[in-house]
Design brief:
about 240 residues; alpha/beta; 3-stranded antiparallel β-sheet; 9 helices
């Protein structure tokens, strides 16, 4: 399974003939196409090695998602999201699954609001992170190999698309439900063939405000609070 490749191929088709109107890079990359569609993706500045000039072709920009350079990859995923993120339910993906006491949940990336909700509902939660946290819930990322297949539900940040770990997370999630969440998430269930769960991403509804927020260093909280974005969710397979 190569989810990233499937995302790039489909988004490239949808972006064909379109050009990039403008790009902003801060905590998130913002890419706006000439037809007004726009998308976002998180930027991992710790691995950034310098600036670059984004291509003018939207189809070429989508291909940057395959890069291992975090700035290029973020611009590429933002271009994918500009091409594919539209519609969807105005619902949180966690609302689409049944959370029962004792449900085993793996959270890939410390998504604090979800961890809090899951714990309050009585779920057994394990968080997997690249960086160490002074929190007994948090395990190192390499524990995913053994533990994710034991989970009933896996919640992964959309940043896994940017850092190329989404393919392995999806393989490990074959026996459970998978939620991919956050503004970086591409809402294209066709790329997640054979999986069940939901993709909880975002749609840019106020381009000027989103662009300005990114250039001023704002993050997801500011974008959502200012209503530059709306949360949106599409389902994959069958939920339970």
């Amino acid at each position: 399974m190569n989810i990233l490749k499937a995302l790039v191929e489909e988004a490239a088709q949808r972006a064909r003939g379109r050009s990039i109107r403008r790009v902003a890079i801060g905590k998130y990359a913002y890419v706006e196409l000439d037809d007004g569609r726009a998308g976002l993706a998180y930027v991992d500045w710790e691995w950034a090695r310098g600036s670059f000039e984004p291509p003018s072709s939207a189809e070429e920009a989508v291909q940057l998602a395959l890069s291992y350079d975090p700035l290029r990859a973020a611009v590429g995923v933002a271009a994918i999201n500009a091409a594919v993120n539209a519609g969807g339910q105005e619902a949180d993906p966690l609302d689409l699954v049944r959370i029962s006491r004792g449900l085993r949940v793996g959270v890939v990336g410390y998504i604090r609001p979800y961890v809090r909700r899951l714990l309050e509902a009585g779920a057994e939660v394990h968080v997997f992170e690249i960086k160490p946290y002074d929190d007994e819930l948090v395990l190192p990322w390499y524990a995913e190999e053994e533990m994710l297949p034991q989970m009933d539900l896996i919640v992964a940040t959309g940043v896994t698309v940017v850092n190329k770990t989404i393919n392995r997370v999806a393989e490990l999630a074959r026996g459970s439900q998978l939620l991919v969440v956050g503004p970086t998430t591409p809402m294209l269930p066709e790329a997640f063939e054979g999986l069940r769960g939901a993709l909880g991403g975002s749609v840019v509804v106020d381009r000027e405000r989103a662009y300005r927020t990114i250039t001023l260093g704002g993050g997801a909280g500011e974008l959502l609070h200012s209503r530059a974005l709306r949360k949106a969710t599409v389902q994959m397979g069958a939920t339970a």
